[in-house]
Amino acid sequence: MLPKNCYLCDHQGMETAFFKLGHRILVCPSCGLYSLDFPGNYQKFLTTYYSKGFFTGGKHYRAYADYVGDKETILKNMKKYLTVIRKYKKSGRLLDLGCAMGFLIELAEKQGFSGVGVDVSRYAVDLAKKLVGKEKVFLGRVEELSSLLSSRAIPTYVGRVEGSSAERVSLDSSTHPLSGFGRNDKNEMFDIVTMFDLIEHLEKPKNVLKQVAQVLKKDGLLVIQTGDVASFWAKLMGKNWHFFAPPQHFYFYSQKNLSDLLSQTGFKVIKIQKIGKWVSLRYLFHMMRYINKDSIGDVLYNLTAKNFLGQIPVFMRMNDNMIV
After folding, report:
1. How far is Cα 245 from Cα 250, in angstroms, rounded to an integer?
2. 171 or 102: which carries more pLDDT confidence?
3. Fewer CB atoms near the end CB (10 Å): N or C, the chain?
4. What is the pLDDT of residue 186?
5. Cβ–Cβ < 8 Å for 195, 145
6. What whole-number distance in Å separates Cα of residue 293 and Cα of residue 143?
7. Distance between CA atoms of 94 and 105, rounded to whole angstroms?
8. What is the pLDDT of residue 170?
9. Residue from 82, 84, 134 nearest 109 by CA
10. Crossing angle for the helix pair 295-304 and 281-290, to the nearest 10 degrees
């Protein structure tokens, strides 16, 4: 049975757009939002999917080929994103949601920002702590942001992935980077919150955005990067568009319906721009073989995955990647 209502506009009568990789992709005939028909348990999904294999070319993950090995290519994108941010904010407290291994935090701090991050993957968080410091990266669901930030003084942080054992880190509450929340002190709130390659992964993005609104300063900046389902390239590729990657992606936004989502949750869109994306050759071939079931991609991946050829960066300018 199809979901009755559209998550964004509440229109009754979602339609099947197509099937991909064994999953049904729905479309709203009113607002045009594409979404994944996900009958499973989201909390259980989080505990199993975002593990080591998600970042290391795991066969069943359809995600990154080698996140750590492709760091220099990933940093090329993050430098572009920070260039956009610096047009509005030259410094300040930055919260990176879905921070993975902490590459953005490391880069932002070199450019004068003070950064912390949250991620649901224990594997990624463990590596991020080694890179930027254990006091700057926290294991937890972004859906639980309010509870994470609600304590007036946090001598101990408890973060969790649903269904897993808790991670406990003792900290001095006076120096804890999240300790100011709950005080309504503008000096303890964030100047910037970033969600790069994240919002499409969220089952209930409205809930997360409402919580983000509570931790941003009044003149704060939320920066989101995701795919544009209404782009020419997405329409040309149809179901073979690389961003249609179930089950990790739950929603597929256009500029219009992402703007509507932000408006519904208290944000004002300043600007939307298309931005190209750097990928490594092995990542490109990895996407071809697992998302599009391309046998040529499989051959090319096997030829390049473990050598220098796979690390060659390629700039993809297909205008299907937007930053808001």
Report:
1. 9
2. 102
3. N
4. 57
5. no
6. 32
7. 8
8. 30
9. 82
10. 150
* CA 90/CA 235 separation, integer angstroms: 37
Residues 11 and 172: their CA atoms lie apart, in Å, by 49
Contact 102, 136 (CB under 8 A): yes
Amino acid at 166: A
Contacts of 166 (CB under 8 A, 6+ apart): 158, 159, 160
d(CA 206, CA 187): 25
Under 8 Å between Cβ of 29 and 13? yes
CA distance readout (Å), 223 to 36, 172, 187, 194, 322: 24, 30, 20, 5, 10
CATH of 43-142+183-228+254-323, one of 3.40.50.150, 3.40.50.300, 2.60.120.560, 2.60.40.1180: 3.40.50.150
- Helix (H) or strand (E) segment spanning residue 71: helix 71-86
- Over 60: is that where the pLDDT of 168 sits? no
CA distances from 221 to 18, 25, 265 (A): 36, 32, 14
Tokens of 130: 């080694």
The residue assigned the tokens 């100011």 is: 180
Distant-in-sequence, close-in-space partners of 165: CB < 8 Å, separation ≥ 6: none
**Are 177 and 156 within 8 A, CB to CB?**
no
DSSP run (H or E) holding 199: none
**Contact call for residues 55 and 67 (beta carbons, < 8 A):** yes
Task: Express each pLDDT in 28-62 by its tens digit.
Answer: 999 999 999 998 889 889 888 999 999 998 877 77
Q: What is the DSSP letter of 90?
A: S
- For the stretch 172-195, pLDDT in tens is 333 445 544 444 555 569 999 999
